[in-house]
């Protein structure tokens, strides 16, 4: 059975485990919707708080929003987004990356210019 792109699939809710904070039935057309939140963990560590957004068009798209914060030595981190291609199959990957960013295990840095 093919799901409507606006329906929230069990695979999505399951991928984000206890972090899911979005609706459980359907989502609005094309409006970015926060569906999961990952607090910085530990609070004094190197991670950043993260929000995961879902957009439903004729396909489902996810965005990881890394909120601004500081690492364990006070350096600024975050303030950027990572966008993912279409497909509910990306939910597990997005959830894993969001968790790693919140725990400080994955950091995105600006490239140094010569």
Order of helices and strands: HEEEEEEH
Globular, elongated, flat, extended or rod-shaped: what is the shape?
A: elongated
- The chain-level structural class is alpha+beta
Q: Within the largest sheet, what's the order of strands?
A: 1-2-3-6
Total of domains: 1
Radius of gyration, taken over Cα atoms and rounded to an integer in Å: 15 Å
Strand content: 25-35%
Average predicted confidence as pLDDT: 90
Question: Between the first and last Cα atoms, what is the distance in angstroms?
Answer: 53 Å
Description:
This protein has 114 residues and is an alpha+beta fold. Strand 4 and strand 5 (76-77) form a beta hairpin. The strands form 2 sheets. It has a 4-stranded antiparallel beta sheet with strand order 1-2-3-6, with helices on one face. The mean pLDDT is 90. The chain is elongated, with a radius of gyration of 15 Å. It has one domain. It has 2 helices and 6 strands.
